[in-house]
Design goal:
L,D-transpeptidase catalytic domain-like, 8-stranded mixed β-barrel, 3 domains, alpha+beta
Length: about 325
């Protein structure tokens, strides 16, 4: 299997910028590791991502792992369902009337009667709920890692139905409420593991700039390259001075921790899959990056989900928080 991997990437390289003769010469003298390093370097270049994204659909960003996107426009009181079609494009399939929190703006704390603005997963379907919430509910991932970074609190932000046997106000305490026939329809047409929810005060931005996505993706793979090849200074330069890890570790402690690890000079395998890069609502330079990460070194192995919240500063990626 590993040999097939190398052969595949070798032939991909023949069609890229590197000269096939030089590749063969490097392989003859240095072996496959040198070729791997060249390939890792190519993945960090804008030229690769500009070409790759040219025919990709970027309606909501660069998305590999979601088949449905739910968008909530709080001002218009709508919840829209977009589904990936056979051409890999996201097309509007349904638009539901929705109630949201009593007050405008972003949720900050428990009980402020606001619906959060952000990017969320649906973590659970609840089939048996209090009749006030209709026939069923979907639990969102609020507060997400960026919410926690900002110091927000609260919980229990759901998409749910209307009361089965009583009247209700025309607003919620922070949830998104849609008619009961609408939530039953939604339930039939989405897989919550493959569905993303984007909430904004107004329209959720669409047709995202491929140029900006190319910058973010190339920066992500520059970060990976410096990590993979133990370039401590370049790796740590990707972290904002305001960085706080999901567990509360601040910038200075994180820098010291990573410096100790890099001193080991371990060989690593780092592979990203199911990659998504989505602009954060109500911002101009913030992106949520999520992916599945495979990491292996002599001392540690990890396979699981990774989330970065990054800010573009002069076309440079700065990581604010990661989980």
């Amino acid at each position: 299997m590993q040999n097939k991997f190398y052969i595949l990437f070798f032939f991909l390289f023949l069609n890229m910028s590197l000269n096939a003769y030089d590749i063969l010469t490097d392989y003859r003298i240095h072996g496959i590791k040198d070729i791997e390093k060249q390939m890792d370097s190519e993945l960090s270049k804008r030229e690769y991502w500009d070409k790759y994204l040219k025919n990709q659909n970027t309606t909501f960003g660069y998305i590999e792992s979601y088949n449905n996107i739910l968008t909530c426009d709080k001002d218009k009181s709508t919840l829209c369902v977009y589904r990936r079609d056979n051409n890999n494009s996201f097309e509007l399939k349904k638009s539901y009337s929705a109630f949201t929190g009593k007050y405008r703006g972003n949720k900050i704390k428990e009980g402020d009667l606001r619906t959060p603005i952000g990017i969320y997963n649906l973590t659970k379907k609840i089939s048996k709920v209090d009749p006030f919430y209709g026939p069923l509910a979907f639990v969102t991932s609020y507060p997400n890692s960026y919410d926690k970074y900002l110091g927000k609190n609260g919980h229990g932000i759901w998409i749910h139905g209307f009361p089965l046997n009583q009247e209700r106000d025309s607003f919620t305490k922070g949830c998104i409420a849609i008619h009961n026939d609408s939530i039953e329809c939604l339930d039939k047409h989405i897989d919550i593991a493959k569905t993303l929810l984007i909430i904004n005060q107004s329209d959720v931005k669409k047709n995202i700039s491929k140029e900006n996505l190319s910058i973010v993706l190339s920066q992500l793979y520059k970060w990976r390259y410096s990590w993979l090849y133990n370039d401590t200074a370049k790796y740590l330069d990707f972290y904002s001075n305001d960085f706080v890890r999901f567990d509360g570790m601040g910038y200075k402690s994180f820098i010291a921790y990573k410096a100790r690890i890099f001193k080991k000079q371990e060989k690593k395998e780092i592979v990203f899959s199911d990659l998504n890069v989505i602009p954060y609502p109500s911002t101009t330079d913030l992106y949520k990056i999520s992916f599945k990460e495979f990491y292996k070194s002599n001392s540690f192995e990890f396979t699981g989900d990774k989330v970065l919240i990054v800010k573009l500063v002069n076309n440079k990626m700065k990581i604010l928080t990661e989980k």
